[in-house]
Design goal:
- The chain is an alpha/beta fold.
- 38% of the residues lie in helices and 22% in strands.
- It has five helices and six strands.
- The chain is globular and about 50 Å long.
Length: 181
């Protein structure tokens, strides 16, 4: 499995991509425990990794960041947002997954991925907050904020839905029949 697990005190940064292909990073607060959700997430991650190479996506990495143990919700959001911000590579596109974001269809997601890849951006980092969401500083830093509808979803489900949409985007880029528009 290609999961990295970081504590909320992580202070390093990811190395810059030096190739012409773009890296995908899903940075999420909390861990998917062993079970069907983790298996499904790993299945989509594997599919993206295999199919992505042919369309200019170098790698997909999932980084899990430990949930803050702060008692105050604002403090939790701050600590978790700092931990997420610390893993964003230089020049990366930042995508915040937040209930206030845009509802994009699969073709629109594919279009933005294509444009970032074609602009030689080294990475696209998808930030998924914990139970209390993302901090305003991280949301304002985002190049794009995306929602998966008006419903509230557990952040574990958001990760799986994101991975499925990324796989769908890769298949659209590759001209594969998985997506039926």
């Amino acid at each position: 499995m290609r999961y990295a697990f970081l504590s909320s005190t992580f202070r390093g940064t990811c190395p810059n991509a030096r190739e012409t292909t773009m890296r995908l990073i899903v940075a999420a607060i909390g861990r998917l425990k062993a079970g069907p959700e983790r298996e499904l997430a790993e299945r989509y991650r594997d599919r993206i990794a295999k199919a992505g190479r042919a369309v200019g996506l170098r790698d997909i990495e999932i980084i899990e960041i430990r949930e803050s143990r702060a008692q105050d919700a604002r403090r939790r959001v701050l600590e978790e947002s700092i931990a997420l911000a610390n893993i964003i590579p230089e020049r990366a596109v930042v995508i915040a997954l937040d209930e206030t974001g845009e509802n994009l269809n699969s073709d629109a997601i594919t279009g933005v991925l294509r444009s970032w890849r074609d602009a030689a951006r080294p990475a696209a980092v998808f930030c998924i907050g914990g139970a209390d969401g993302l901090g305003p500083e991280l949301r304002s830093r985002a190049d794009l904020t995306v929602a998966f509808g008006a419903a509230t979803w557990p952040h574990q489900f958001v990760r799986i839905m994101l991975l499925e949409q990324l796989y769908r985007a890769v298949t659209i880029l590759a001209g594969h029949p998985y997506h039926r528009a």
